[in-house]
Design goal:
Layout (H helix, E strand, L loop, with lengths): L4 H7 L71 H17 L13 H9 L4 H4 L6 E2 L3 E6 L2 E10 L2 E12 L2 E9 L1
């Protein structure tokens, strides 16, 4: 049973804080007015819906090319190996070549001629030149914006430092070839 309020106040010590009471007030949230008009139909009969935003399709094929012509030919995605594995192999090959752990000439088959010439001609970056620590490559992320093209990125670590690496692979003659490379 409960004690009367006078008895309860007499039993509490004088230095105890007084209990405050709270009151809960319910406030209605504003709602939009209810419309009596019917909702607009999303699809109207006889009206063509708007076109989706442009997405790039496959690369155009040269229909006037003769069978006797020689040279590189574009490959579709179905004719190419897995881009993640090929990209990982390429990135490790280039990074280890720049670090001096393997000959850079091994990357020549996997890169475009102008890209390889740029890699071979430029001096090695400072983070690659010093030390004997191995190059560790994180997970390779793959994006395929167009049929026969893959863009890959990864994080390379060496001697406690991390560097972003990105490359563009194009399918040429049934294999991936790197046409652009950026090392940060």
């Amino acid at each position: 049973m409960t004690a009367p309020p006078a008895a309860a106040s007499a039993s509490t010590p004088a230095d105890a804080p007084a209990l405050r009471t709270f009151r809960l007030t319910v406030v209605p949230t504003p709602q939009p007015p209810v419309s009596q008009r019917p909702a607009l139909p999303l699809v109207r009969h006889g009206v063509t819906p708007p076109r989706a935003p442009h997405r790039p399709g496959p690369r155009p094929r040269d229909v006037h090319r003769r069978a006797a012509d020689f040279g590189p030919t574009w490959s579709s995605r179905n004719d190419l190996p897995e881009p993640g594995l090929a990209g990982r192999r390429l990135l490790l090959l280039v990074l280890e070549g720049l670090a001096g752990l393997r000959p850079l000439a091994q990357a020549q088959r996997l890169t475009a001629p102008n890209l390889y010439a740029g890699l071979a001609a430029r001096p090695r970056p400072a983070w690659c030149a010093g030390g004997t620590a191995p190059v560790l490559l994180g997970p390779v992320h793959v994006c395929e914006p167009v049929d026969g093209v893959a863009e890959i990125s990864a994080v390379a670590r060496r001697s406690g430092r991390a560097h972003a690496v990105a490359a563009r692979l194009e399918g040429i003659d049934g294999r991936w070839r790197c046409t652009a490379l950026q090392i940060g």
